[in-house]
């Protein structure tokens, strides 16, 4: 996930209520974890095929995580370790409930009318939605086949896991460009920048709609040369990128880091003011 304050988007400011729930009982009226019905080998196989996935939580949102009113699924698991992550509990494959594709799709269909009226749909976020690729692929295809607008919120680090056929089931990609300079990207995430650019180049070649998201963190990502580098990357994808969102850092996740026994490095960093977020000459 991008992990700034989504409601403080600078290019097209929009506010939306967020209704969040744990994943348990996402599509099952009994509220049970699908894993309870499966033996260990069956569960292993179901995860391999994508019949089930570990879903951390879900949310009904308006005008964030894509257009209209959306159901956002937060998947467990992420290969990045962003210093500003406000949901570090989604990084590992430890929290959440095992959900079946069919239950999620049934739930999505119940909201289909709201999605249609509002121009919304499904967003799969995380964690990293491509971490459990088999499950994400299945949900996206089923939702898309049912006429529901689909979106992923991804760092792009695992973009190579998506086939062109998978991309046919995705209407919009929210692509986090967490920094423009490779060294800053590594400092922010612990990973390398190149896969994100490669994925963005591929989306551009395919003409896929993209919203780029960048989190502005004072003292970490706000150096002018880093912002210039983000602008340069975005300009590579001219014509494909519909929107650029600059999300101001916040430290609301600090308590979760402590709760997990992890060191939170941005304790003393204050959120940037909105003038800084909206004032870059390259229009970021
Ligand atoms: S660590 Fe993963 S879930 Fe957290 S902000 Fe980074 S990409 Fe998103």
Automatic annotation (TrEMBL):
InterPro entries: Aldolase_TIM, Organic_radical-activating, PFL1_activating, Radical_activat_CS, rSAM, rSAM_sf. Belongs to the organic radical-activating enzymes family. Residues 64-284 form the Radical SAM core domain. This is Pyruvate formate-lyase-activating enzyme. It comes from the Bacteria. It holds the Pfam family Radical_SAM. Keywords: 4Fe-4S, Cytoplasm, Iron, Iron-sulfur, Lyase, Metal-binding, Oxidoreductase, Pyruvate, S-adenosyl-L-methionine. Activation of pyruvate formate-lyase under anaerobic conditions by generation of an organic free radical, using S-adenosylmethionine and reduced flavodoxin as cosubstrates to produce 5'-deoxy-adenosine. The keyword DNA damage does not apply. It catalyses: glycyl-[formate C-acetyltransferase] + reduced [flavodoxin] + S-adenosyl-L-methionine = glycin-2-yl radical-[formate C-acetyltransferase] + semiquinone [flavodoxin] + 5'-deoxyadenosine + L-methionine + H(+). Its EC number is 1.97.1.4. PROSITE patterns: RADICAL_ACTIVATING (PS01087), RADICAL_SAM (PS51918). GO terms for molecular function: [formate-C-acetyltransferase]-activating enzyme activity; lyase activity. It is found in: Cytoplasm. NCBIfam families: PFLA. Binds 1 [4Fe-4S] cluster. The cluster is coordinated with 3 cysteines and an exchangeable S-adenosyl-L-methionine. Its cofactor is [4Fe-4S] cluster.
């Amino acid at each position: 996930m991008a992990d700034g304050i989504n409601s403080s988007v600078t290019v097209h400011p929009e506010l939306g209520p967020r209704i969040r729930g744990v994943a348990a009982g996402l599509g099952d009226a009994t509220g049970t974890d699908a894993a309870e019905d499966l033996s260990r080998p069956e569960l292993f196989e179901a995860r391999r095929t994508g019949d089930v996935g570990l879903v951390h939580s879900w949310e009904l949102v308006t005008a964030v995580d894509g257009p209209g009113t959306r159901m956002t699924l937060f998947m467990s698991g992420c290969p990045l370790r962003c210093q500003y992550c406000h949901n570090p509990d989604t990084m590992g494959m430890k929290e959440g409930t095992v959900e079946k594709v069919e239950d999620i799709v049934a739930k999505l269909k119940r909201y289909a009318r709201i999605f249609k009226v509002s121009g919304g749909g499904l967003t799969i976020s995380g964690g990293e939605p491509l971490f459990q690729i088999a499950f994400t692929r299945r949900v996206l295809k089923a939702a898309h086949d049912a006429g529901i607008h689909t979106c992923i919120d991804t760092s792009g680090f695992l973009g190579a896991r998506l086939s062109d056929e998978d991309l046919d089931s995705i209407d919009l990609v929210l692509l986090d460009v967490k920094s423009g300079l490779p060294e800053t990207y590594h400092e922010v995430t612990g990973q390398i920048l190149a896969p994100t650019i490669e994925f963005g180049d591929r989306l551009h070649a395919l003409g896929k709609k993209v919203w780029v998201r960048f989190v502005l963190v004072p003292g970490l990502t706000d150096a002018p040369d880093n912002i210039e580098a983000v602008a340069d990357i975005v300009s590579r994808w001219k014509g494909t990128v519909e929107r650029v969102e600059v999300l101001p850092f916040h430290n609301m996740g600090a308590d979760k880091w402590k709760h997990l026994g992890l060191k939170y490095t941005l304790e003393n960093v204050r959120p940037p003011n909105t003038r800084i977020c909206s004032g870059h000459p390259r229009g970021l």
